[in-house]
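Support request from a user on the community tier.

User writes: "When I paste my structure tokens into the form, the page sometimes reloads and wipes my input. The last time it worked, I copied everything first. Here is what I submitted, just in case something in the input itself triggers the reload:"
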């Protein structure tokens, strides 16, 4: 008979705005040829990170989001940010998807890595894991250069995320001030 789990062992670290983002080390496509390079939260220290969870490779909606962020990666990088896509698919599925032309529902030419969260442990920490299907909802999170979670939004599986809105929020966060509803880059924060 095994000993009962302690409180620490049974507690799952849950992501919370204003708190350090849950740490991770996941298999990734950083080296698309070997698939042997992991990706870690610490890889993004000193940069803003847009963590982009999606349900599955080779679906109808997912490539529209994944490629939309890729197509604007230069603009995102210009704001001191990186993007990391995450799903519960394997890195082998990710590689096949990256090597599939966009005209065939692939994401060929993807400019940022995809990470594999096969058991959904990271998705569970962000409270977006659909356990019975072992897939993540469409969760988008912005983590600051110090590793603190600053923003999170979760969409139903059938609704894609907006790159424009993500960049607006990123730039608002970067002001460090209070940004009113419909704040746009170039506007002053409240009280500035």
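"...and here is what came back when it finally went through:"
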């Amino acid at each position: 008979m095994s000993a009962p789990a302690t409180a620490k062992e049974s507690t799952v670290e849950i992501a919370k705005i204003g708190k350090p983002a849950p740490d991770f080390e996941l298999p990734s496509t950083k080296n698309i040829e070997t698939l042997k390079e992991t990706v870690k939260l610490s890889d993004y220290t000193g940069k803003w990170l847009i963590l982009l969870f999606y349900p599955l490779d080779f679906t109808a909606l997912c490539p529209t989001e994944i490629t939309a962020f890729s197509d604007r990666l230069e603009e995102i990088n210009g704001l001191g940010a990186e993007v990391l896509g995450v799903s519960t698919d394997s890195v082998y599925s990710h590689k096949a998807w990256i090597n599939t032309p966009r005209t065939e529902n692939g994401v060929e030419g993807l400019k940022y890595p995809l990470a594999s969260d096969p058991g959904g442990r990271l998705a569970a920490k962000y409270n977006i894991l659909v356990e019975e299907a072992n897939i993540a909802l469409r969760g988008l999170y912005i983590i600051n250069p110090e590793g603190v979670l600053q923003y999170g939004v979760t969409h139903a599986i059938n609704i894609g995320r907006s790159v424009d809105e993500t960049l607006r929020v990123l730039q608002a966060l970067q002001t460090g001030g209070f940004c009113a509803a419909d704040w746009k880059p170039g506007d002053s924060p409240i009280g500035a």
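Agent notes: The reload is a front-end session timeout and is unrelated to the input. Strands lie at 25-27, 38-40, 48-53, 81-87, 114-116, 129-130, 135-136, 138-143, 149-155. Residues 1-10 have pLDDT under 50 and may be disordered. Escalated to web team.
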